[in-house]
């Protein structure tokens, strides 16, 4: 195992390959583990289960290859991917080359039901600072240009925009600065905004509409707008590979689980994950496995308690089995691998994620 790797102090990588591995003939699959927790809550998203499942799958495949050297031809990369909750660690690792030689990537996430797939929204962060002219608010306000007016107009504009958005789009915004004292026209004011959308093109379209609102507010108030996107990398929507996902479902059925199909969970319950950034670069799956009673919300104390339960331990073992089987199938079944790639290409193929929002 190597650590640190790919520019992150808490990332790690380990590699397993068959004796006859040839990068020109054989495939590589990446198995991912997350392990970051939430401040004040702990593992309210169950990343400890993700970590254990990924490690279990990798060790199971290593044991298989040790006992049966001809079990598969190919390579497995096991990656520890930190900072999912905060800084899009997988995107940083991808930019540093972590997935350059992989043909597919797989992981599993704990949840309140077993489901093969659900919607995961792309997310971007925007900060806008309005800069006006300060003046005495009573004696000569006409000499000022009110930055807070622009922030208030922008906030209202974002609220009105929601009526014209697709149901899966999200806008969250706060005014985090708006002046120091009421008898001065505020010279600066700022908003902190998050936006989310179900697909990469709609996330880009929403970004443009947000900028129009922010610039329009500046024009109305007669101030300048300094708009900055993504202080840490954005997270992209997940594009799940259904062909590969079906192998996950079959593996889970073998051990007594029966994952619900994609579409069971409403898109209105969707959150975000940096696995989306990887799924737009190469085929991938991000299924969910039950560790908590139905209806238990992610990022809650109740889910953190469930992540320490015997049910979570069982899910980690079942998840490890599922990931190992999917990896083995992908490495050994040429027809499956071809179908996986064909589906990926039909869905749009590899996306230049890092520069996607430059235009």
From TrEMBL:
Belongs to the peptidase M20A family. One of its GO terms (cellular component) is cytoplasm. InterPro entries: Amidohydrolase, Bact_exopeptidase_dim_dom, Peptidase_M20, Peptidase_M20/M20A_hydrolases, Peptidase_M20_dimer, Xaa-Arg_dipeptidase. Pfam families: M20_dimer (PF07687), Peptidase_M20 (PF01546). GO terms for biological process: folic acid catabolic process. GO terms for molecular function: dipeptidase activity; para-aminobenzoyl-glutamate hydrolase activity. This is Peptidase M20 domain-containing protein 2. Residues 124-214 form the Peptidase M20 dimerisation domain.
